[in-house]
């Protein structure tokens, strides 16, 4: 089977890292006999917006909705377009309209990457954050009353549906069950957020009954963030609402020093729509155009994409190539203390693919 | 003037650490000619609840509402009383009914305290988290519909009022202005939480205009938690909503290794009602009754209370006594790797007060 991949570099360093991601994907595909076909799109970018006054063409769904996956660079350039136009006009639109209800990110201490935590070594920290990606705190329900008076107030609803909560928990429990430790941690705040969070807890308890082989616990989000720093070795699969998952999936990579190289998947598990794979870093206007961006976030996202497509061996070969490149400490980019440019780093990883 | 302090030990280790807090307060008061009068109350505890079926007497406001401050131990014992009874029946009631709209916590790397972060030394990290303490995400507005069907959903509103947001921002900007660095960081998430958080940003911008001497910036909460780990030296005063402040004021102390010894103030700045000072740690059922709890959180909270009452010199003398005790590394409790019991540690700090 040939996989059709929609490639959207987007903005800023997105355009610089994607060629390296493609280089490594091609190397792995060749080595492992996987057939990939790439279609390139220029929308979801400031350039496109400048020309067309919108982030995407009206028929964007027809253009990319039938692909097997979407390989994405970065979007957003706050100085040029407000976030609610750029992000809500592309990334968040994909999540909602392609029902990518899982946001998945690894938290892994990699060899050779300087971690801000003291006394941790590769292998100590290795877990997944599973984030609900379509509802929760990112609702659009709410408004403002009595504007510009002392009575002014705004309100915004957090919305959790049975369907929305149960399906993300199911995904998280399945993932936990498939891993050696079989452990799940739920992020809550039911002692303070007194309606939605107790409901989340209730659904976790109900779902846990269906997975008797999975040990689970829950922490309030305040102490959970503390435990990411103090006891990152406690975790295996961590599941949270849209907001809590967002926080934990930045904090986790930060604790392992990998925030600049972390990958993510916005996944529609049923495969009714394509999933989006993108590096966690954004478009980084401050370093864009210099060719110094670290391509590993994009490359690692490509590996996640292959694994999602079922090409586990090819995907794993990329992750291992990344680990070897990082461990050798030679061809690293500036953010990791090296001198290599984006292309040199990408080539190094491609050469390592085995 | 004599200060009248309401003392409420509450539950678990709250009862064990409070005598040490009082010991140190008395030592500092004696040294610095401050007159403190303590009234002791047994409510806000499981014992009281067991006897009376409620957390506090009906006339709790008359009993403690006229005191100059409330010195609090810990509340909550989830195995015996659900949080929504114990916490919402005491701590959160105080915050709301005594209009303690500021929750204030220091984040400071102390000498002699093992920090989970690599390569940081005392003096590197020294900032305050200012948390809105009465509204925001902890509203009680919302509900459930279509229970036990596939259409089931719950919703809960985040509520931000002009009055509520402006007054916490004012407090935070004033605090920033009083400090040498004069820097303020606002926690937001306006790229995802599209109604309340842009409002928060808008009010921050408006308030900043009134404090031209204060430099300020803002970060989305996801990357802000990452920056607490990666760049804790960037911060001076950090202000956030009820939820964001809650998260940051656990994560901050965790980064400095002080979560077990951190203090907090629930403050009504106008002094219309008493403020509550309490250690950040809870009742800790797992170690309660053994006499091994670290009393420094309670002692440090006592120092914050003195400072709030205007007794800066006496307050400072306690903080310095804590620092010296920690630096000497002799009389420390088990959680910090020592052998001292709660009383021995409390006596050591009291002896150090100068
Ligand atoms: C106990 C809980 C309701 C409380 C809160 O979230 O406000 C606690 O975490 C705190 O920070 O004081
Ligand atoms: C850009 C922003 C809206 C987004 C989010 O909060 O979902 C980002 O932080 C992410 O994690 O993908």
List keywords for this structure.
homodimer; 354 residues; alpha/beta; Isopropylmalate Dehydrogenase; 2 domains; two-stranded antiparallel ribbon; 12 helices; 39% helix; globular; binds 3-isopropylmalic acid; ICDH/IPMDH (chains A, B)
Distance N to C terminus of chain A: 22 Å
By helix and strand content of chain A, what is the structural category? alpha/beta
Q: Please give the order of strands in the largest beta sheet of chain A.
A: 2-1-3-12-11-4-5-10-8-9
CATH-level-4 superfamily name of the largest domain in chain A: Isopropylmalate Dehydrogenase
Q: How helix-rich are the residues of chain A, as a percent range?
A: 25-40%
Count of DSSP-assigned helices of chain A:
12
CATH architecture name of the largest domain in chain A:
3-Layer(aba) Sandwich
Overall, the morphology of chain A is: globular
| Bound ions, cofactors and other small molecules, one mention each | 3-isopropylmalic acid
Order of helices and strands of chain A: EHEHHEHHEEEEHEHEHEHEEHHH
Family (chains A, B): Belongs to the isocitrate and isopropylmalate dehydrogenases family.
Cofactor (chains A, B): Mg(2+); K(+); Mn(2+)
Catalytic activity (chains A, B): tartrate + NAD(+) = 2-hydroxy-3-oxosuccinate + NADH + H(+); (2R,3S)-tartrate + NAD(+) = 2-hydroxy-3-oxosuccinate + NADH + H(+); (2R,3R)-tartrate + NAD(+) = 2-hydroxy-3-oxosuccinate + NADH + H(+); (R)-malate + NAD(+) = pyruvate + CO2 + NADH
Keywords (chains A, B): Manganese, Metal-binding, NAD, Oxidoreductase
